[in-house]
Amino acid sequence: MTTSALLSDLRVGGRQHITASTFGARAQAIGSHVFRIHRFTQVREKVANGTDVNSSMFSVGGHDWRIRCYPNGNVEKNQGSTSLFLQQARHAKTSDATASFKMSILDKAWKPSLTGTVEKGHRFMGDDWGFNDFVKLEDLDKEKYLEDDCLSVLCDVTVDVELSTEDYTDEVDAAEELTKAPPSFPLHGLAEAIWKRHEPDVKIEVGEGQTLAAHRWVLEAGSPIFKADLALISNDTVPELRVDDMDAEVCKV
After folding, report:
1. Residue 14, phi then psi, degrees to nearest 5
2. Are 81 and 73 in contact (CB under 8 A)?
3. How far is the C-alpha of 74 from the C-alpha of 151, rounded, in Å?
């Protein structure tokens, strides 16, 4: 049973205000980002050892990430190499994350070629993790990897399963759902299916003074005439409509 169906059944007992929360393991989230450094040769000449250039932030698994590239190495002993790291951004916003990832330099055919992989998930706590000596500059063949002097770095990120408690929100706009696609059953069937989820908010007087309860959104979605009539009535009051040329049984249908 879905949480929505469970809440509907519980409302039958008069529990009109009821909330829920769920606890479980989130599935792995996988995402990729391409970071392209144009005029890489010039960038490498101007950027000193220990200085990084960063990609824009991208989101995977509810966390923000960025690629950090040190064209001339991240520390002195790695000068002459390019260092690549994955950094967790906005840690204060999303807290810790465990992720595995793969860094690749794309060749002229846009295929991952030079590759480094962190297979065992690293626990990110706002830090970065990666490869100090990803590729030596002499191994970075211009013909193969620097098309138009552009270095393209692909990062594939997998955020591991985590246990979490989340608030359940049930804010389905039934009227909007009706307009997305025709229901697989008549409108009165849909109204009956969700009747218990919302209190009736319209009174219809039909036939010889019989009064029926109805849902405003059902009337507005099913009849342009009712919609026009209801538009003239304030939302602060319970609308009362009068249908003179229809008996109660026909109106229920």
Report:
1. 95, 5
2. yes
3. 17
pTM above 0.70, yes or no: no
Q: HSE on the CB side for 117, CA within 13 Å?
A: 5
Task: Measure the CA–CA gap between 54 and 51, rounded to whole angstroms.
Answer: 10
CA dist 239 and 110 (Å) reads: 63
| Rounded Cα distance, 123 and 64, in Å | 14
Mean pLDDT for back-to-back runs of 10 residues, the chain (253 residues): 74 74 77 96 94 95 94 94 94 88 94 91 92 93 91 94 62 36 46 53 71 72 75 65 63 53
The structure tokens listed for 245 are 């040329």
CA–CA distances in Å: residue 59 to residues 56, 70, 109, 128: 10, 22, 26, 15
Query: Token pair for residue 8?
Result: 């509907």
Q: How far apart are CA 235 and CA 19, in angstroms?
A: 25
Closest CA to 214 of 236, 185, 242: 242
Q: Is residue 35 within 8 Å of 18, Cβ to Cβ?
A: no
| C-beta of residue 218 within 8 angstroms of C-beta of residue 180 | no
Which residue, 240, 235, 236, 217, is CA-closest to 227? Answer: 217
- Cα dihedral value 113, 118, 119, 122, nearest 10: -160
User: Position 81: which residue type?
Assistant: S
